[in-house]
Structure formats: structure tokens, C-alpha cells
Amino acid sequence: MRYTVSIEIALPREKVVRLLADPAHLPKWLRGLVLHEPLSGEHGQLGTKSRVVMQMGRRKIECTETITRREPADLREIPKTSVVHFDREIVGEGMWSAVRDRLTEAGPDTTLWESENEYRFSGLLMKLVGLLMPGAFRKQSQQHMQDFKAFAEQGKDVRDATG
Fold first, then answer.
1. Are residues 140 and 33 in contact, defined by beta-carbon separation less than 8 angstroms?
2. Separation CA 54–CA 46 (nearest Å)
3. H or E stretch covering 2
4. Per-position DSSP letters for 44-77, written without gaps between them
5. From residue 67, how far is each of 28, 60, 73, 100, 160 by CA, in Å?
6. pLDDT, tens digit (0-9, with 9 covering 90-100), for 3-62
7. Beta strand 84-92 with 95-107: parallel, antiparallel or unpaired?
8. What angle do CA 26, 31, 34 make, to 5 degrees?
9. Strand order of the sheet with strand 110-121?
């Protein structure tokens, strides 16, 4: 299964990239995040493997994330014509996923974040989930982007949300 979601954020790209790359901000916008800890390497750097635990309703999902591409490596003073790439592979029980994020300047103070997502499932349960609920994956990706936009633009923290 593959899909692409995108969103425009009313902030300069350099600021958006720094907010996305900072592990201290993850719990503020990544709804359901319980834990994100590097197992090897430095958070967000190429080749880093991290243990990620997410709470999805009553279910806890644990997976391993590996950063497979980060360009440029230095996120300060990125040339205006450059595209920032941040790719990762996520492996969990019955699931493999690749996320390829691209951030481009949509205007002087606007950033376009495009996220290409690919999923492969193994095991009967996960194959059924992928077959019967493909829209749930796209919806969750879009929700994460909207939560990040609200955090970046207005300082909203998903942990403060009620209900």
C-alpha cells in the first residue's frame, strides 16, 4: 500500500525542519507517542536506530525506526532551492513501512511538507488490517501532519487536548 499526504505550514522551512528534527518536541505533536529512544546513533541522524512505542487506543505498538536518508546533514542555512529529505524505515510485528518526507519552500515564510508512505504487511492479522482499513493509515499520517502544523504555528500540544 502506498499513499502521499502533504500540508503547508506558515513558517520558514529552516524553522520547520529544526522543529521536526528536535526530539524534545516529538511528544508535543506526535499523538500517541509513549517512547522514542535511540538504540544506536544520535537521534535523527543517518543510520540511527530507535525504539518507538505508540499507544493506539488500548493497544501499544512497538517498532524499530531506522533513519535511511537525511539531506542535508546540517539543517542550518539550507539553500533556498534545496529539498530537505528525511526518510526512515519502520519495522514492527507484521509490518514494514518506509516514510519519505520532503520539505520545500512554498514561499518566503511557507513550507510544503510532502510525505510518501509505503506499507507492507505480513501475518494474517496485519494483512487483514491493511486490506480492510487502508484509509486509516492515510488518515493517521494526515492527523500527525495537522498536529505538527498546530504545534509549529500556534504552539498547541496534543497532550493538552481533551477527549
1. no
2. 22
3. strand 2-9
4. TSTT-EEEEEEEETTEEEEEEEEEEEEESSS-SS
5. 21, 22, 12, 10, 29
6. 999 999 999 998 999 999 888 899 999 999 999 999 999 888 899 999 999 988 888 999
7. antiparallel
8. 70
9. 2-9, 110-121, 95-107, 84-92, 59-71, 49-56, 33-40
